[in-house]
UniProtKB/TrEMBL annotation:
Organism encoding this protein: Psychromarinibacter sediminicola
Keywords: Membrane, Transmembrane, Transmembrane helix
Keyword Transmembrane helix: yes
Matches recorded under Pfam families: DUF2975 (PF11188)
Protein's UniProt name: DUF2975 domain-containing protein
TM annotation in the entry: 12-36, 67-89, 101-126, 146-163
Statement: the UniProt record of this protein carries the keyword Transmembrane helix: yes
Amino acid sequence: MEDLKKLRRWAVPLQVGAILAMVALSLAVGLGIAFADLPDDLRRAAGLGDGVQLDTSRRVAVGALGALPALAMIYVLGQMAALFALYAAGEALSVRCARRLLNIGAGLFAGVVLELVARPAQILLASLANPPGQQVLSLGVEGADLGQILAAGLLVTVGWTMREAARIAEENRGFV
């Protein structure tokens, strides 16, 4: 019972933090797409010279591609906020909590996949501003990607396990 009290006490500030992070990330994504110039590392990867500027529609399209992984993170933060709300209400072992954990894991996995696809697409789209024959397609996978995939898989597995435990707990409540 003491652990449930601790869970409820921690859940509220974590829920607020997830909501604030979701709002901040949403604003950053929107402002970044609308106003930001291409980062230097993206310009270098696309082989854009100092004098090469992208037209507004292409710059916005490159920014929108880069925002795709952030959209997955916004989804994950929303699922986290909903999970913390359930915890704050005293609901710790339920199918609804398990579903949120599964959604968080799936969202993290989607974010990694979107990052792996969006970055090369951004580079290719930006490099189309180069003269003919100087377009670039760059693919890469980092160690952090593997870590995120494993973390996502862990959350999905814990979600499945929690769903089964909640089902068994509900069956046992029926016997008492």
